[in-house]
Amino acid sequence: MEGRDTDRNRGADRSRSAGAEARAGGTVADVGEFGLIRDVTGRQQPPAGTVVGPGDDAAVVPAPDGRVVISTDVLVQGVHFRLDWSGPEQVGHKAAAVNLADIAAMGATPTSLVVGFGCPADTDAAVATGISDGLTAEAARVGAGIVGGDVVRADQLVVSVTALGDLGGRTPVTRSGARPGHIVAVCGRLGWAAAGLAVLGRGFRSPVGVVNAQRAPEPPYTAGPAAADAGATAMIDVSDGLLADLGHLAEESDVGIDITTDALEVDRKLVDVANALGADPMRWVLTGGEDHALVATFPSFVDLPQGWRQIGTVLMPDTGVTVDGKPYDGEIGWEHWR
Question: Which of 18, 51, 272, 281 has minimal Cβ neighbours within 10 Å of its Cβ?
Fold first, then answer.
């Protein structure tokens, strides 16, 4: 008994030491795998209702609807974020947002996250805890939280997030339900993250509102379930660009879609940034991704939920996605390896 108590005390001492290393600016190698896990999990609470949270072989979470909505995204340093552009907490916010938006786009409410984290041994432990804090804060916006995950050594910083969600009795809103005659509507900002990327790419850090849209997007999470309740027939979040993502929806639904530029909102801030950079703000709105706005189709007789606005029409098949009745001139969005 005495030996086990001593081991337990030593373990507690190591845990406290690891947490102190993280707060004092040590690296993840200084803290160690289990010290880092203890420090990260000690900074947050799993969401209400969690049966088994971090610390066991697997998490156990309730599924009130009997169905679980699941989405996964991987963020890689240098591809999806840069630490000279974004703070660790902003990276965490972004990593959560890109997954939570996918859950909302199915008409579901996010419930929990599982996180995989990889980094080099010389990474400052505060980077890991900062990312965890950002993930936790963003998930808390919808009442969700982190219930488990893993940390590994990697050549570069990687954050992999799996989000779970609950449909609450709703039929999932997929990409395949759009029909000719339906209207196309959007909720959330378009073009802001693209404008922020353009600003950061030029070496500037302001205007802050535009730059932060790229660093930590703010999807309209509650708009997804609201759209489902209102009768949305198809839905997707705008991660790769409005035209590109509508192209996915049109392909899955076997329809055409036409967007009316007069119906698209181009905020004055985007116009000012575009004028300063010699860019076209409408191109950002049409083809810029990473805002994670939601775009959906509805029957024409439906009253759109609050915050949604009509921007186009669903057409017969074989017309593709057009803008003001014409094919768009230029690349329509982001695609890896292109």
Answer: 51
- Percentage of residues in the chain with pLDDT exceeding 90? 79
DSSP single-letter state for residue 305: P
**Annotated binding residue 240:** yes
Classify 24-42+62-166 by CATH class: alpha beta
Q: Give tens-digit pLDDT for 208-243.
A: 999 999 999 999 999 999 999 999 999 999 999 999
Amino acid in position 232: A
Task: Tell me: is residue 150 an annotated ligand-binding position.
Answer: yes
Q: Per residue in 173-193, pLDDT tens?
A: 999 999 999 999 999 999 999
Look up the CATH number of domain 183-327: 3.90.650.10
| Separation CA 116–CA 145 (nearest Å) | 14
Q: How far apart are CA 150 and CA 25, in angstroms?
A: 21
- Cite the beta strand spans of the chain per DSSP E: 69-76, 109-119, 145-153, 158-166, 183-187, 234-237, 256-259, 294-298, 309-315, 321-323, 326-327
Bond prior to 299 in cis (omega within 30° of 0): no
Distance of alpha carbon 89 from alpha carbon 128, whole angstroms: 9
102 is in an annotated binding site: yes
**Is 280 labelled as part of a ligand binding site?**
no
Look at residues 247, 223, 238 and name the one whose alpha carbon lies nearest to residue 309. Answer: 223
Tell me the one-letter amino acid at 135: L
Tell whether the model's pLDDT for residue 201 goes beyond 80.
Answer: yes
Tell me what percent of the residues of the chain surpass a pLDDT of 70: 90
109 annotated among ligand-binding-site residues? no
Q: Where are the domains of the chain?
A: 24-42+62-166, 183-327
| 73 annotated as a binding-site residue | yes
